[in-house]
Amino acid sequence: MPEGPELALAGRYINEACGGLVFSGGAERSAVGRGPEVPFRSEAYRLGAAARGKELRLRLEPLGAGSPQALVFRFGMSGGFRLRPAASPPRHAHLRFLTRESPPRALCFVDARRFGSWRLGDAWQPGRGPCVLSEYQAFRENVLKNLDDKAFDKPICEALLNQKYFNGIGNYLRAEILYRLKIPPFEKARTVLEALKQQEQERRKKNSSLPLSKKLKRDNPDLLELCHTVPMEVVAAEKNLLDPDHADNHTAFKNWLQCYGVPGMSSLRDHNGRTIWFQGEPGPMAPKGQKSRKKHAGPKADPDAPTTEVTTRASKRRSRRAENPATSAMKKEEEEEEEAVPDPPRRGRARARRAAAAAPASPKPEAPVKATRRRASARKGAGAAPAV
DNA sequence: CGTCCACGTCTAC
DNA sequence: TAGACCTGGACGG
């Protein structure tokens, strides 16, 4: 679950779970990890982490002599850290740091899809802006001082994924943030942000003549504030357990979502092919010729008797939550498909069909399948060794 | 069994 | 503005 909050939580997890541990040896890399070998070795060292947006920096600090080493990770779609017994590491562990404990444990960078990576050194990726979580003021100023950037010519929902300005915002956060203000996702970014800037200036004037007690309360948070507070909510909601993949966190997270993937909400593909979830009007810059779909309550989540007819209208998980009283959330139903325009320019449909994918059945999922190694047998499947 | 979908970047017609 | 890069879970036949 890697957007800003998950990176922040990973950093906290590492510091809390590993802060008191002593590590030893080198960093063991899997054959297929998307990152370089780590030129570091120490009989006794500590680990410390810090997150910034969608990056996480790990520092390896020798207790005795030796130079420290820093690494900067990106999680891609599926990356994360786990502290596990070294003898039974998770599948897809691509980098491991071993503790000096008697049965040793390993802090593992785990990443099933391998879109994540790491680099040597402590430099953040140039071009990524300040973190929406940990550098709120700098983040806000960076946006408001650069509204002439063509990045803000785009719809607000697309601008929100631009890590030069919104480092840490990802696909679920953009939906949740826009939903809180009911901003149409395809409203032009600059329009939204100029208005916000204007309000800010008016507010400043007034505030200067107000008692301090009135200044402090932000009762109508603007979009940029929500870019900070909404991800902070996720950090708070998932703070439980020192185990990133325990079920409670997942449940808390699903419960927390108000819009992203929630039954009754609408969705569209944006101009980059990413799904944006929203409620209400899509806004003026919405892609043409696309049907905005509404999510029905899924067949799962329906613990009814086998015989019953469907009727599973009501949204499941968000059963309670007295949200959106005003708007007619989901009224008649039936009017699902909700088209927008005919669709003569019916192109772009293609969802990238995997053509390649040689190796119909590679014996070792983790092995560098590389060349056209076709085997007609060897059904590997699960249970494989983690291949580190 | 198969198809579609996924919390993110990258680079190449 | 399409793919490419990957694995795996959900769901359908």
TrEMBL record:
Superkingdom of this entry's organism?
Eukaryota
| Residue span(s) of domain Formamidopyrimidine-DNA glycosylase catalytic | 2-116
Q: Where is this region: Disordered?
A: 274-388
* GO biological process, alphabetically ordered: base-excision repair
Q: Which residues form the signal peptide?
A: none
Ranges of biased composition (kind: Low complexity): 379-388
Record SUPFAM superfamilies: Glucocorticoid receptor-like (DNA-binding domain), N-terminal domain of MutM-like DNA repair proteins, S13-like H2TH domain
Instruction: Give one GO molecular function term.
Output: DNA N-glycosylase activity
InterPro entries with a match to the protein in the record: Endonuclease-VIII_DNA-bd (IPR015371), FPG_cat (IPR012319), FPG_N (IPR035937), Ribosomal_uS13-like_H2TH (IPR010979)
Alphabetical list of Pfam families matching this protein = Fapy_DNA_glyco, Neil1-DNA_bind
Question: GO CC terms on record?
Answer: nucleus
Provide the protein name.
Answer: Nei like DNA glycosylase 1
Please name the taxonomic classification of the source: Eukaryota, Metazoa, Chordata, Craniata, Vertebrata
